[in-house]
């Protein structure tokens, strides 16, 4: 059953003949280069966002300027260098390819632009391109399958700020979270099936980006459901319709069914935690250690919170997690590629836009 949408979207009338519709694809962002200075600038913008580090402003400033920025940029820069290509950041390259594909799928009535919440091309620059194309309407596509305030909420807030600053503000609608959209699920399944067939894993782990537990609790409209009981994410209802963790489990249920995986053949975990505060569990690194202890040898990892391969998939899972898995006694670990600009994903995004 389709759950209530966590992001409200307007329902504009069908496009009039000759009307131009702007489509803004928004992803998180990437440094301009893997050099320490560029990484520092990116992290400063990213971690200064009160939706990302949702603590009091003084604490956020101290954390950022005294603990993170003096040390983390060099470490992150090294990680970025392991995945950087001649064409640049994988996330940005895949984003441009996706935008080109969606433009071709939608046709000349639409103008498609890519914007990053942090870094370049900025949301402001992408919106300027659409303004110059004289679009009458704007459809915003946050490229985050599951809703979180730190990603989707922040991206939409920035779009509304930038679009609303114009003298002539176009009609704006947004694509809601698509965590169990049939097109999204089938596209991911199409990508995964040949890799799983050739790799022949003895277990599949669905690894999603983590968020602090406090952010999940803040999304609970009743303040009585999320993380209060072990089965809180087994279904999505009015009380947890904004819950990122519940939507991740919903994606897993849909995608594992599409891939024909039994309940004993897969699990869910959450990666990329930062700091000492509790993040949503189970943690990916601990889940992989437990699978080795259980005697698993060949594990495939899917990352359905990411629609494009990036640092968190290519480096964190494809390099570091694989090295740890083999060092711990596993035989091999496969990172299943993300959607990137796969034709099925291009068409799924185009259909999301048409429906919006």
CATH topology of the largest domain: Rossmann fold
Largest sheet: 4 strands, parallel
Strand content: 5-15%
* Coarse structural class: alpha/beta
Portion in helices: 40-55%
**End-to-end C-alpha gap:** 20 Å
Number of strands: 8
CATH class of the largest domain: Alpha Beta
- Count of helical stretches: 12
Question: How would the global form be characterised?
Answer: globular
Order of helices and strands: EHHHHEHEHEHEHHEHEHEH
- The CATH architecture name of the largest domain reads 3-Layer(aba) Sandwich
Mean pLDDT across residues:
94
Alpha carbon gyration radius: 20 Å
Low-confidence stretches: 1-13
Number of domains: 2
**Strand order, largest beta sheet:** 2-1-3-4
Task: Summarize the structure in words.
By secondary structure, this protein is α/β, with parallel strands linked by helices. It has 2 domains: 170 residues, Rossmann fold (3-Layer(aba) Sandwich); 154 residues, Rossmann fold. It contains 12 helices and 8 strands. The strands form 2 sheets. The protein has a 4-stranded parallel β-sheet with strand order 2-1-3-4, with helices on both faces. Strands 6-5-7-8 form a 4-stranded parallel β-sheet, sandwiched between helices. Strand 3, helix 6 and strand 4 form a beta-alpha-beta unit. It is globular and about 60 Å long.
Secondary structure layout:
Blueprint: E1 21-30, H1 36-47, H2 57-68, H3 72-83, H4 90-106, E2 110-119, H5 123-132, E3 137-142, H6 149-164, E4 171-174, H7 182-199, E5 203-209, H8 213-219, H9 244-258, E6 266-271, H10 284-293, E7 298-302, H11 311-327, E8 332-335, H12 343-355
